[in-house]
Amino acid sequence: MPSPKRVDLDDYFAQLDATQTPHVTRLRELSLAAAPGIVEKLAWNNPAYHLDDVRLWMIQSYKQHCSLRFPPHQFGPRRAEVEEAGYEAGEGFLKLRYDQDFPEALCRRLIGYRLEEYAETGSTWSG
Fold first, then answer.
1. What is the mean pLDDT of the chain?
2. Could you report the per-residue pLDDT of 83-117, keeping only the tens digit for each?
3. Could you read off the pLDDT of 16-30 as tens digits, one per residue?
4. Pick the residue with more confidence: 122 or 50?
5. Is residue 41 part of a domain?
6. Is residue 125 a part of any domain in this protein?
7. What is the pLDDT of residue 115?
8. Which domain, by its residues, includes 94?
9. Which residue has the higher pLDDT, 62 or 4?
10. Has residue 2 been placed in a domain?
11. Long-range contacts formed by 58-65: CB under 8 A, 24+ apart
12. Domain count, the chain
């Protein structure tokens, strides 16, 4: 079943249930604090974080987990680090089950890797 349509970011966060809120809110806080000038926008019904109008990463929320999603080309080399830390990874994302501890240091590193890559290459989502 698809996620309910979100009108804006306030609506997105208001529709989270009590199980989703702690992890998703912490991802939001880390994202907004990651770098000066980060802008949060709703993209494809999810919060996305931009610099210079370039989408760098997104948060997705589901019933049993949330995801921190990056461009697959950038995340690929980080997948092993995520799995070694005991978390699931997919093509471009870290999967965080709500019944797991929140891996703050890992999330900070992944966001930092994306910011470094963007600073070095100006890489957009598609490459």
1. 93
2. 999 999 999 999 999 999 999 999 999 999 999 99
3. 999 999 999 999 999
4. 50
5. yes
6. no
7. 96
8. 9-119
9. 62
10. no
11. 59/24, 59/27, 59/28, 59/31, 60/93, 61/3, 61/16, 61/20, 61/24, 62/3, 64/97, 64/98, 65/95, 65/96, 65/97, 65/98
12. 1
For residue 125, give the nearest of 80, 92, 98, 96 by alpha carbon. Answer: 92
- Structure-token match 């995520």, residue found: 82
- With tokens 């880390």, the residue in question is 30
Q: How far is CA 77 from the centre of its chain?
A: 17
Which residue in 63, 61, 78, 74 sits closest to 27, CA to CA? 61
Q: Is residue 1 part of a domain?
A: no
In this structure, what CATH number is given to the domain that contains residue 102? 3.90.1150.200
Torsion of CA 26, 5, 53, 116, to 10 degrees: 40
Amino acid 105: pLDDT: 97
pLDDT of residue 122: 84
**Structure tokens that stand for 93 in this block:** 């994302």
